[in-house]
Amino acid sequence: MEIINSIPLEYYLALSAIIFSIGVIGVLTRRNIIIIFMCVELMLNAVNLTLVGFSAFLGDTSGQIFVFFVMAVAAAEAAVGLAIVLAIYRNNKSIYADEINLLKW
Predict the structure, then answer these.
(1) Residue 77 within a domain
(2) Does residue 40 fall inside a structural domain?
(3) Alpha-carbon distance 82 to 64, whole Å?
(4) Whose CA, among 38, 94, 103, 104, lies 20 to 30 Å from 7?
């Protein structure tokens, strides 16, 4: 039995581009580190949507398998990022990106 995909690939790609653009705008305009991390996760999810869309369009499962690796990297990034944010908050009592100057002399 053949499964017919009723949603065209262009819709997946357009939605992915919109989500990725929202993530990029959030990373470039926000000051709060937690919101910046959330926007990076949004960009990773947009890439995942693109991978799944192309995978379904081409009938190949390798894109869907690659999504699991991207999700594992995103989970590790979130865990390490949250630990770094907590360490910075303990030292500076602030989580704004403009106020972090740990690498300055």
Answers:
(1) yes
(2) yes
(3) 27
(4) 38
* Amino acid at the residue 48: N
pTM of the entire predicted model: 0.80
Q: What is the pLDDT of residues 11-43, one digit of tens each?
A: 999 999 999 999 999 999 988 888 988 999 999
Q: Residue 12 has which token pair?
A: 């997946």
* Total domain count, the chain: 1
CATH number at residue 88: 1.10.287.3510
| Among the listed residues 75, 22, 77, the one whose alpha carbon sits nearest the alpha carbon of residue 46 | 22
Closest CA to 42 of 16, 62, 60: 16
* Nearest to 85, CA basis, from 74, 71, 75, 97: 97
